[in-house]
Design a protein that fits this description.
By secondary structure, the protein is α+β, with helices and mostly antiparallel strands. It has a single domain, classed as 50s Ribosomal Protein L17, Chain: A, CATH 3.90.1030.10. It is built from 4 helices and 3 strands; from the N terminus they run αβαααββ. Strands 1-3-2 form a 3-stranded antiparallel sheet. The two termini are 24 Å apart.
Length: 112
C-alpha cells in the first residue's frame, strides 16, 4: 500500500489527517479531494473498529488518536450504530466537480 504524503513531513501529515478525520466524524459528511479521502478512510474505519470493543482502553486509545469530541462520538454513537457491520463504514462518492486551482477531483466522504 502506498502512503500518501501530501508534500508534508510525518508530524504535520499525521496532524493534518487527524484533523480531517475529526471533521468527518463530527460532521458525518465532508467534501474533499479524492487523495485525501482515500488517505483518511483507513484511519476512520480503524477508529470505529477500536470503538466497537467498548472498553476503557479502547476509549483512551481513541482519545489519543482523535480530539475529545470526535473520540466520544465514535465510542458512544458510531460504534453502537455499526455494531453488527464488519468494516466498510465509509462511502466515497465521486462528483463531477474539480477544484479550480489545481484540477483535483472533488469527492464526498460520508458514513454508510
Amino acid at each position: 500500500m502506498r502512503i500518501r504524503k501530501f508534500h508534508k513531513k510525518t508530524g504535520p501529515r499525521r496532524h493534518f489527517l487527524r484533523i480531517l478525520a475529526g471533521n468527518l466524524i463530527l460532521k458525518g459528511k465532508i467534501e474533499t479531494t479524492e487523495a485525501r479521502a482515500k488517505a483518511v478512510r483507513p484511519l476512520v474505519e480503524r477508529c470505529i473498529s477500536i470503538g466497537k470493543r467498548q472498553t476503557i482502553a479502547a476509549l483512551r486509545l481513541l482519545m489519543s488518536r482523535l480530539s475529545y469530541k470526535a473520540a466520544n462520538k465514535v465510542y458512544y454513537e458510531l460504534a453502537v450504530r455499526y455494531k453488527e457491520r464488519h468494516g466498510g463504514y465509509l462511502r466515497i462518492q465521486k462528483t463531477a466537480k474539480s477544484r479550480k486551482r489545481d484540477g483535483a477531483m472533488v469527492v464526498i466522504v460520508e458514513f454508510v
